[in-house]
Amino acid sequence: MFSRSFASKDRVSKVSRSKRSFKNSAKPRLQEPESPPLGSTLMSPVVTITVGREQRLFAAHEDILSVSPFFAVACRGQFYEAHSKRIDLPDEEPEVFSCVLEYLYKGDYYPRLLHNKRRNSWELEDAKLQHENGGRVGAESTILLPDMDGVVLRDTVVYCVADKYGLDPLKRLSLRKQGLQTGIEVGTILRSARFAYDHTPDTDSRLRAHYLALIIRCRKTFKRSGTMQMEMERGGKLFFDLFVALANHVDDIAEIG
Questions:
Q1: 95, 143 in Cβ contact below 8 A?
Q2: Average pLDDT of the residues in 46-57
Q3: Dist CA 193 CA 198 (whole Å)
Q4: Most buried residue, 58, 124, 159, 246, by most Cβ within 10 Å?
């Protein structure tokens, strides 16, 4: 058994292998946003979207929403009245839907992905602030989900929602952003991994593989974590996949040796 350690300082210092320094950094370039749909003049009908248990209201142009196959179907035939176009999403989180809407209009969502020409690498626009904050993720990087008994990484939830809405480019973007996060607490990672397993199909392994690789890469931190021990005792497909990934990792090392 692992030795128990419930210290709140258990954090994964890096999610990405890339080394980043923020001293004398070149001014990063904003990722080029994707254009609105071809032929869009932002003059199409405006759709009202009611989101979450508190029924937060959003508004978006129909042709922008229709980039998503999910919303394209909704805009064609799921309105009760043609003159009052409205979509109800009671099970979605307003904060996450806001990210989706921002992406549909701008090709990205906050914090945006920036390209640093000097290092020829990608980083998040608030990376310098995060570095000055001791490497800890900011509050905007996580979201509180009552059903998960704590916070999970917002990019993970965005990925799962993008899968539901048929937005593959948004899935790739959110996955890339997750790889740039640092200073994440073990409990947040494990809750996020469970959320990913619960909200992605078995045929979509990209997000799951991200978490498996992260745990293996930072195994020293996870090994001494009491949170990890409790999660393993709860069990689930996550930990069987982790065992298989670890076995493959050991086999690869043995072959190299």
A1: yes
A2: 93
A3: 9
A4: 159
